[in-house]
Amino acid sequence: MPVITMREALNSAMREEMRRDPSVFLLGEEVAEYQGAYKITQGLFQEFGEWRVRDTPIAEEAIAGVAVGAAFVGMRPIAEMMTFNFSLLALDQIVNHAAKYRYMSGGQIRCPMVMRGPSGAAAQVAAQHSQAFESWFVHIPGLVVVMPSTPKDAKGLLKSAIRDDNPVIFMENEVLYNLKGEVPEAEYTIPLGLGDVKRAGKDVTIVAWSRSVQYALQAAELLAKDGVEAELVDPRTLRPLDEDVIFESVRKTNRCVVVEEGWRYAGFGAEIADRVQRECFDELDAPVIRVTAADVPMPYSKMLEKAFLPQPERVVEAVRQVLYR
Amino acid sequence: MITRVVLAKLSPTMEEGTIVKWSKQEGDVVKVGDVLAEIETDKANMEMEALGAGVLRKLLVPAGGKAPVGALIGVIADAGEDIAPTLAEAAKAAAAAPAPAPPAPAPVASAAPASPAPTAAAAPRAPIAAAPPAPPPAAAASGRVKASPLARAIASRSNVPLAAVAGSGPGGRIVKRDVEGYIASPAPARSAPAAARPAAPVPTVVAGTALPLSSMRRTIAKRLSESAFTAPHFYVTVEIEMDAAVSLREQLLRAEEVKVSFNDLVVKACAKALTRFPTVNASWTGETIQTHAEVHIGVAVSVPDGLITPVVRNADQKHVVDIAAEIKDLAARARDKKLKPEEFMGSTFTISNLGMFDVTEFTAIINPPESCILAVGAVRKQPVVKNDQLAVGHRMKVTLSSDHRVVDGALAAQFLAEVRRLLENPASLLL
After folding, report:
1. Per residue in B29-86, pLDDT tens?
2. Which of A5, A135, A286, B192 lies in disulfide reach of A322, CB 3.0 to 4.6 Å?
3. Cβ A282–B149 below 8 Å, yes or no?
4. Which residues of B8-29 are buried (b: 16+ CB within 10 A; e: fewer)?
5. Full-model pTM
6. Are residues A20 and A167 in the same domain?
7. A286 in the same domain as A176
8. Which residues of chain A does B35 touch, with a Cβ-Cβ cutoff of 8 Å?
9. pLDDT by residue (tens digit) across B228-285?
């Protein structure tokens, strides 16, 4: 199986879908001639031309509005946000239009669009450019929220997102763009709403998605040295959530730690903790513990940035807490 | 964040501990898992670990000092954090802590015999042996045992009494490994429910070892020593002709398929006799002799780590068949440690029967605050003299231990005569 980067995986997902379906088109800031601020759209302008790969003004609400309108009339737009920090400008289009029309029109109008781009912290891009916003979008009925953690998942899930008839918020991670992994050569998709066990174990369940999967994997390696076998569950799609894969694991291990890069306060991990305590109450040997970002704006300082983010050591500490050791 | 350092329950029977030494001093930075202190429990010296990180701000009990399980002995907090409220709360809790062994409240019933009011006078009294070991004060204060949901589920499935399990989690929380450890341990404190009462259980004790005291064992030691050393005991033994009782038992079994034991008949006979001798159904209070309006018979049941006396309430008013069924149920649940406190408290007279071990006769120590206990031997086939001829008959010896402060020899003899009369004419017991 070829080993490629997540950047290449995302690129090939869009390329394949644009070849397969002429209603798929791409718009965003610098996606065409510059081939993407993070080079996710490399070569697409050259292959598909200016009508299907559109540069836009620096106006996120306009990008989202065009995408929503195009989707309403049957196109399948992929709107790139240079980062999700800027998607705040487009929230009205996403929340009040993309997420609502299918419901308000009694199913007559669909919004088969994808809004994609990096979310979360990168490296020293400070308070305004380091935010993990999944907790904002999962709150909205009518949206699908996807956050892949590997190149294979990224490609399979993006293809499913493009084909889905609902608006999909597809959140990538800048730090993961260079992450390499095996990706099948043959055509494949991964269904939305299906979680995955990234590492099997019997002692504790760690739930993590996107970049947090990396923290969790490193933590699992550290724990393995001490004879603790952590099971790592990646929901991949946060809305709708594959809670069964989480429950099944927790019922086996009796313990659950949730790792997320977002803030603790009303973060998505709280949703998981809530469901686990309710559905696995009699199987829990310890409270569900969350490892999150610190409850402050992201500092610019490199050391403070590290302290702000969930680190493998903090995951290990949380696991020890639920193991009572 | 403030972490209250409480004396952990480091053994199942631990009620208090001595701080042998503090491994950390006030002002030391501690992290989770650091050894804070060495604690002497009722079993051994053990290390107690920190359950929270921060600065060890305050030590409340000096090295060499004692504290009850669950007591606050230190405070871990961040450097500048205000710990005054935690300390104040601890001081308040210590002041409000109950005395370790409250004296048994004296019943206040008047001596109206066979009062129809069923529960009027049954002031609860400490049982001969408290079934569950006392939970640590922290748990007692909130009235619950802290256990993880999983630990509860496993304990419930495995019939493990959570109160008997020592919790190793934060704040003494009982977690999965504690319950599993309890189940796996060969503690004499537990055993599978005995199927039948038959052969003497052979205790699996390694000779030459010191056995730790269970809470039940401590209670037995304390209460029965107190009884033996304060109540002047005397003993009266009678031999009872049991031929009619043997025959009655066989008739009930054959004709009605009802199984009634000799002990059930003894319970009923004593209950009936007690209604005629209220002074035997009485307690010494120091100032008065308190007679009891109701007859509640305690039946001593041997359990793996001691004995307990479930109570047949108002036994004088119950049919012997119902008494039989009730004792069977109570004894089974006593062995499973599933009796509710009200089921082993409040007896006014106790019967102890070693007949199943083929004991001829023995003496028993009074179960305070009662005044008498009847020790029942086996029904034995033996040569007897009938009409100046040697014959084969069934005989049973019973010995009444009495508190001479309450009961005199003549009264004991009269009471036993009535018991004997009833057992020798057992049809009266069916009325």
Report:
1. 888 888 898 888 766 677 888 888 888 998 888 888 888 888 889 898 888 888 888 8
2. A286
3. yes
4. bbbbbbbbbbbbeebbbeeeee
5. 0.54
6. yes
7. no
8. none
9. 999 999 999 999 999 999 999 999 888 888 889 999 999 999 999 999 999 999 999 8
Same domain? A173 vs A301: no
CA pseudo-torsion sign B48, B51, B53, B54: negative
Cβ <8 Å between B148 and A285: yes
Q: Quick check: is B394 catalytic? A: no
Which 97-156 residues of chain B touch chain A by CB within 8 A? 148-153
CB neighbour list of residue B125: distance below 8 Å, 6 or more residues apart: B104, B105, B107, B345, B346, B347, B369
Establish whether A97 is a catalytic residue. no
Please, where are the H alpha helices in A254-311? 268-279, 302-308
Q: Which residue bears the tokens 């696991």?
A: A319
Nearest Cβ partner for B151 among A285, A320, A321: A285
Cβ contacts of B168 on chain A, cutoff 8 Å:
324
Same domain as A203, residue A178? no
Q: Which candidate in B146, B148, B165, B180 is best for mutational testing of the A interface (most A CBs within 10 A)?
A: B148
Rounded CA-CA distance A44/A36 in Å is: 10
Q: Using a CB-CB distance cutoff of 8 angstroms, which residues of chain A are in contact with residue B153?
A: 282-283
